[in-house]
Amino acid sequence: MDLHPFRQRSFKQRASLSGIGLHSGAQVRVTIAPAPADTGIVFVRDGSEIPALADFVVDTTMNTSVGRDGIRIGTVEHLLAALAGCGIDNAYLEVEGPEVPIMDGSSEPFVALIREAGIHELRQSRRFLLVRKAVTVTEGDKLARLSPARGKLSINYTIDFRHPLISDQSFRVDMSERSFSKDIARARTFGFKRDVERLHKAGLARGGSLDNAVVVDDFNILNPEGLRFPDEFVRHKILDALGDLSLIGMPVIGHMTAVKSGHALNHQLVRRVLAEGEACEVVQPSAADELHEIQERLLPVLALEEQVA
Ligand SMILES: [Zn+2]
Prior knowledge:
Helices cover about 25% and strands about 30% of the residues. It is α+β, with helices and mostly antiparallel strands. β4 and β5 form a beta hairpin. α1 crosses α5 and α5 runs parallel beside α6.
């Protein structure tokens, strides 16, 4: 599959999958469908359209939910990460039920769904958000930052849970379709046994099980199959961050640094970047040398040094 890196993408045809909803426990179904150039990613539920943009995020506590006029769709992050990871610019995501199915807790089933639908290249050039100035948000010892960088998106993530299996993991990825599907897409969501019990008592995470999450108790991984990567936890956090960044509405050219961040802080970063006019610029190069020229012109040497520091 030889795709043009600067042209917009959608699908050749529709494709669906069904599964359990993590929070509702209900059987839910999602269909991905082709959309014309410049549509962006748009959720559809009961005939209402909800663009997958930061302005439509209504909840980031347990998962990411989008909503509009009282209609909500939950657990959107792993599907959005798969679309961003595969470089899909335009799609309708028709959801039947209150949330996107959790599947195995990773993005891999959605990557398979995208392959089933087939990637269709459109003639129009893709728009990118070029980060021109570092923007940082913090909360206690948590940090999320976007800074200027050459080329495309890279993410460096560090987590440090007070747990022997999940203390001080770091991972860096230079995002491409290949690195996403090889290193990130298969990483599953995770949780702690004590939280699962608490959530179940509160009527939440009703669909949660060892089939759709890595669950750890104080010392062990409870899933009989073990981990898919020794550092699966931090890789999943990168998957989540990619889904969160996708709510900018276009691929980002820049470097993200995250320390102990999560959906809420990632969303704060997205909103800050979009609100600070001079922090970023929308560019629409049609080839690599054109992007290079744009970067030479727009990225001050100082800004790039900031990233190295
Ligand atoms: Zn996740």
